[in-house]
Amino acid sequence: MKNKKAPDIEAALDVVKDGDLIFFGGFGTGGVPISLIQGLTKKGLKDLTIVSNNAGAGHNTIASLLDTGAVKKVICTFPYSRGSVVFNDLYHSGKIELELVPQGTLAERMRNAGSGLGGFLTPTALGTEIADGKPLIEVDGKTYVLEKPLHADIALIKADKVDPRGNLTYRLAARNFNPVMAMAAKYTIAQVTDEVALGEIDPAVVVTPGVYVDCYVIDKGGLVE
Amino acid sequence: MTTASIPTDKLLSRDAIAKRLAADLQPDWVVNLGIGMPTLTTKYVTPEQDIIFHSENGIIGMGPPPAPEDEDDDLRDAGKNFTTLIPGAALVHHADSFALARGGRLDCAVLGAFQVAANGDLANWRLPQDPTGNIGGAMDIATGANEVFAMMTHATKNGESKLAETLSYPVTALACVTKVFTDMAVISVTEKGYRLDETAPGISAEMVQAFTDAPLQIADTLCDIAA
Predict the structure, then answer these.
(1) What is the pLDDT of residues A96-131, one digit of tens each?
(2) Containing structural domain, residue B119
(3) Which residues of chain A lie closer than 8 angstroms to B85, CB-CB?
(4) How many CB atoms neighbour CB A42 within 10 A?
(5) Under an 8 A CB cutoff, do A172 and B75 touch?
């Protein structure tokens, strides 16, 4: 069996390089791979494109990564939030590019990428500026917006339990974007709370099969936001 | 724009709007609540309604806020506030959560609005003067929900109506709003435009029209909003 377990955060992030497009799992405080994002920040990379629901708040996690100048573009659904000062400054001074995507479209673009598909037709954003420049396609009398798959070089995700094959379970609403991000990345790195022996996770409750997980690292990571 | 001044002493409180709106949620409905004022709705639904609240981050069956000792960082709502699960709740990932929303399983979405148009167009994501804004799940949810209830103050603090003939704000979703609940009135969006159904006690139909930038039909059953 392939050894997917990294000894520490630094080793887990070894493959990440300049220019990568990176998914960050999580929504609010749930399912955010905080230790991996902090480790990434320490690497001092540049020209990254990051994909996350939000654009960071305060000076923690994503905001601290933005603060180092490592990021050229943010793809997200909800950039402004209480305390999103780092993003605001960079965006309004033209130092960072933003691609705004409706949340359901963002998740579906990931699932689409992970499913080997070349796009999908959604009624979302029809008639809005988000659909500007995108093909509109009529099917059975109804008009849809063509959205393309979103692939990543790297997904940084957070899970609850992992077994040696990389099978993952999630706690409560910490699941959020993590499973579809794991599907759509060339290389998925999972920060997990607990490792259990092979066979200890009921196959019927595995949410992310280990085939989508390239590397995992055990980290009880404190919550920061 | 109107020359009348806002009858501030007669306006409904946010809680009173939420209470009135909650009465329109039908038993067993699956309902998504937008962030901000719409979340107040949970305080006014009854156990008999047995509403299943959906939260965009994958919760089907969201309960009331927890006691401080039960707060869990892995269980927050769309507005990132701590929440709980009702008995019989289900959890899904983001793509499935929005499949539910677009797929016709949401009976109703209650959303805040910057502006609503007389044909039901909704604007709630970007102010015209801002370079960008927050979409979150609003475009998918407004597009997918079978009913969209807009919940908002009737006018801005400067007295500008939020109920327009056509939108001047950037669109969130076209022709989606079915009913508007404000601090002055309950208004349905019909094929012929706005229909005034109920007014806040002490506010006349003429006053509501003065703060509405499109013609109001008056319902035959026009009445006061029940306290």
Answers:
(1) 999 999 999 999 999 999 999 999 999 999 999 999
(2) 9-217
(3) 172
(4) 13
(5) yes
Q: Is B223 part of any domain?
A: no
Write the ipTM.
0.95
The domains of chain A, with CATH numbers, are 9-218 (3.40.1080.10)
CB contact under 8 A, A77 and B133: no
- Tell me the DSSP string of B69-108: GG--TT-B-TTS-B--EEEEEEE--HHHHHHHHHTT--SE
What is the number of CB-based contacts under 8 A between chain A and chain B? 142
B97 part of a folded domain = yes
Yes or no: say if B50 and B22 are a contact pair by the CB < 8 Å rule: no
Q: What is the pLDDT of residues A9-18, one digit of tens each?
A: 999 999 999 9
Looking at the structure of chain B, the number of domains it has is 1
Within 10 A of A200 (CB to CB), how many other CB atoms are there? Answer: 10
Query: Is there a domain that residue B108 lies in?
Result: yes
**How far B63 CA lies from chain A's nearest CA (Å)?**
13
Structure tokens belonging to residue B14 = 């946010």
Closest CA to A181 of A218, A152, A148, A149: A152
CB contact under 8 A, B93 and A207: yes
Residue B224 lies in a domain: no
- Out of B58, B98, B174, whose CB is closest to A126? B174
3-state secondary structure of B224: strand
pLDDT above 90 covers a percentage of chain B that reads 94
Token duo for residue B191: 């094929």
Measure CA of the first residue to CA of the last residue in chain A; give whole Å: 37
Q: Rounded to a whole number, what is the distance in Å from the CA of A132 to chain B's nearest CA?
A: 12
